[in-house]
Amino acid sequence: MRTFLKLTWISTALLLTACSTISKEPVKHIDMYVKPYYDARDGRLEQINVNKDIDALLLKNTQKDFESAVNIIEKKVDFVSPMTMFALSARAYDFGLRDEAVKWFYRGQNRLIIALYVLDLDKLTVSNNTAFGQLVGQHVNPYAFCDLNKQHKAAQDAIDWAKNHPYQAVFLPQLPSKHPDRKQALKEAEVKLDARLVEQERYFANPENKAKWEKERQDNLVNERFCW
Q1: Which pLDDT tens digit goes with each residue over 96-115?
Q2: How do residues 25-70 score in pLDDT, each as one tens digit?
Q3: Cβ(70)–Cβ(103) under 8 Å?
Q4: Is the distance from CB of 115 to CB of 198 less than 8 angstroms?
Q5: Calpha distance 151→99 (Å, rounded)
Q6: Angle between the 148-164 and 123-144 helix axes, to the nearest 10 degrees?
């Protein structure tokens, strides 16, 4: 079932486990329509408008061209938007590269958290990026949490990557900031990334929380749909 979204404010859930429609069938594609940025049906991309350097490559719908797009992004990643990373995550999932999908989703999520903390972005930009990420996360996060230890490592790797590849867009003078010292604000945002993972660790360290979380996944058939 393809998900349609006219972009509005949607907050990202850390422990999202289920999509809106429950089915036992394995979820093998991220089919969604995000006007005017992204349109994918049955695992095939029909329209994309997220990054002019790779849009045409992604539209070819081959794994080889996807990998070429990734190589382009890796070479200029310091200025790549969260939405571009979410798009790479979705395409990776469609090609069955689900660990790659997790990697790009968490990178994009962390970059968005940093941007939202440092920059004073307009409401449309905030809603566009947040909503896009939320839709992709509805598919990627349930898979990521199939193995808690593996997920934790992926999350930590993404935090380390964010620190080693600071988002240079937060220093662009044409983008207003909420803070007088952007470098200090960036460091504060990175601390928030660490704190989120610590909060997750605390949550699962509580047996009652973990049992409740496992039951929610069981009730929503998450393991059947995503842990294959």
Answers
A1: 999 999 999 999 999 999 99
A2: 999 999 999 989 999 999 999 999 999 999 999 999 999 999 999 9
A3: no
A4: no
A5: 10
A6: 140
pLDDT at 113 (0 to 100): 98
Q: Residue 61 to residues 19, 79, 85, 97, 188: CA-CA distances in angstroms?
A: 25, 24, 17, 14, 39
Would strands 32-35 and 3-6 be described as parallel, antiparallel, or unpaired?
Answer: parallel
Residue 17 has pLDDT above 70, yes or no: no
pLDDT at residue 1, rounded to an integer: 55
Cis amide linkage into residue 207, ω under 30° from 0: no
Query: 141 exposed, middle or buried (CB, 10 Å; 0-12, 13-18, 19+)?
Result: buried
Closest CA to 71 of 81, 57, 52: 57
Rounded to 5 degrees, φ, ψ at 192 are -65, -35
Mean pLDDT (the chain) is 92
How far is C-alpha 131 from the geometric centre of its chain's CA atoms?
10
Question: Rounded CA gap, 83 and 90, in Å?
Answer: 11
pLDDT value of position 24: 87
And the tokens for 216? 């929610």
Phi-psi region of 79 (alpha: psi -120 to 50; beta: other; left: phi over 0): alpha
β strands within the chain, DSSP E? 3-6, 32-35, 38-41, 44-48
